[in-house]
Specification:
Radius of gyration: 21 Å
Helix content: 40-55%
Number of domains: 2
CATH class of the largest domain: Alpha Beta
Length: about 350
């Protein structure tokens, strides 16, 4: 069977959906069941990050790679090739795709919190995601929380939605107990992730933990725009805080290996992968107390109340985990049981099974 895949998220700097797809492809490259199928990866430009086994599977469909490309140019390419099934890993698919469609909807924040999006962008996301999900033969999502949200906001029956947890790659070297007094955040900077509250709380941490540093890695996508550099300067944090929009995998791995604490104060996520990556590397996660954070991290995280503007609560949690080594070790003792639930091999096999079911194989 020919499996078509929307692979445009593999161009440029793959993050989020791009990393998700790369991990699935990496597992399929060595899976005998996947070897029974032929894959075509449709994209508008040469992928920047792709397993070697799939380099000959790329089909370049010229265009800009946006919604018009998806709905017109990609749809035409699918109609010409007629794959047995088409996998859209990033929320939306061509509405006229000439094949059974499986779409992955990772979250529906644009439905649950439209105020976080510009009106045009929010409208586009809501309409295209809802139409794509309703038309799809099957929908994949990444947590029970997201399945409930898709049912509530899009109106799909639960039976059409398959929860498949993503996986975690173990770090290259074993985690060590000795850590720098380093607090780390990784992920795009949105209002819902309260990075401004983190920086404000860190000013209190810095006063009580000599040498403490805060590393923030992620593209600033706040709307309305928040000037985090100005906030750092106003709080007098200077060189104690580093803000970078992107780092390569080696640099990211080094940050995970050195950080004592990882912070992710998100009010809404479909899953939240970076706290698990930090946990796997031996950094203790501090997260907002939300249903999805409880589902994903269980006992292996320190939870702070959703009223994240209470900077003192955040500062106390960070200070505690930076200074109380036995307490941090007790939290990290749960890491093995939690991380064991998230294997890319299992995610890839389950996803392939859904694609085969949708195609009637």
């Amino acid at each position: 069977m020919r499996i078509g895949i929307d692979a445009r998220e593999l161009t440029g700097r793959p993050t989020g959906v791009g990393r998700y797809l790369v991990e699935l492809l990496t597992e399929w490259a060595g899976d005998p069941d996947a070897a029974r199928h032929t894959f075509t990866l449709y994209t508008h430009a040469t992928p920047a990050w792709l397993p070697e086994a799939f380099r000959s599977s790329v089909r370049i469909v010229p265009g800009a790679g946006g919604t018009r490309w998806e709905q017109r140019d990609l749809a035409r390419a699918i109609a010409a090739d007629r794959p047995g099934v088409f996998f859209a890993p990033g929320y939306t698919a061509p509405l006229t795709a000439a094949a059974p469609v499986v779409v992955a909807v990772h979250d529906v924040s644009f439905f649950a919190h439209p105020e976080w999006f510009g009106w045009r962008e929010g409208l586009r996301r809501r309409h295209l995601t809802a139409w794509s999900a309703r038309r799809a033969r099957r929908v994949i999502t990444i947590s029970e929380f997201s399945r409930r949200e898709i049912v509530a906001h899009i109106g799909l029956p639960e039976a059409r939605i398959q929860v498949i947890y993503p996986g975690i790659r173990p770090p290259a070297s074993p985690a060590t107990a000795a850590r720098d007094p380093l607090v780390l955040y990784v992920g795009s900077l949105f209002q819902r992730r309260h990075v401004d509250a983190l920086i404000t709380a860190f000013a209190q941490v810095r006063a009580g933990v000599p040498g403490a540093r805060l590393e923030i890695v992620g593209e600033n996508r706040t709307r309305p725009h928040i000037d985090f550099d100005a906030l750092v300067a106003r709080l007098g944090l200077g060189e104690a805080v580093s803000l970078r929009s992107y780092v390569d995998e080696a640099t990211l791995g080094d940050l995970y290996d050195r950080a004592a604490v990882f912070v992710f104060l998100s009010a809404y996520e479909g899953f939240g992968l970076t706290p698990l990556e930090a946990l796997a590397a031996g950094a203790a996660p501090v997260v907002l107390d939300t249903p999805v954070a409880r589902e994903v991290l269980g006992p292996a995280a320190r939870f702070v109340p959703p009223v994240a503007a209470v900077h003192g609560v955040i500062a106390d949690a960070l200070t505690d985990l930076l200074t109380d080594v036995p307490g941090r070790a007790a939290l990290l003792a749960h890491a093995g049981d939690v991380l064991g639930r998230y294997q890319w091999r299992d995610a890839a096999r389950a996803t392939l099974h859904v694609l085969e079911e949708a195609a009637g194989v």
